[in-house]
What does this fold into?
Amino acid sequence: MSKDTVQDGVVVSMDYKLTVDGEVLDSSDQGGPLQFLAGYGNIIPGLEREMMGMKIGDSKDVTVKPEDGYGEFDDDAFMDVPRGEFPADLKLEEGMELHVTDEDGQHQAAYVAKYDDKTVQLDFNHPLAGAELRFSVKVVSLRDPTEEELDHGHVHEEGHHH
It folds into this structure.
């Protein structure tokens, strides 16, 4: 089975740039190419689907709708929490990211929407919820995953521990 195209079970290295509303939010210029194991949901579904079948050196511009990206903005994804439930020495700022644990013990990222002395309103929407994502991608290299990567379902980069 030749691994000359992006397909399930291949480790893809790609250069990318993410633009939302004409603003570049993320790109591989800083950290170098992004590696991901195709077919395992490591990157957002709309982008992964569009990259299938690309060859090394291929470039593509992909527009990902919210439902294939970070989801629609949910007006109900807000929660008011008493200020006292946060550490007193925590300096709150609007837009800051907090990690909270829900009843099931799942960690979730939440963002401070607004706050006063009594109440903190948390927003559980992803910052890019409801956004149309424009990716410019280029496939840099393809390789077979290691057995460990296949077992874990994601790439193990040298020196990066998640």
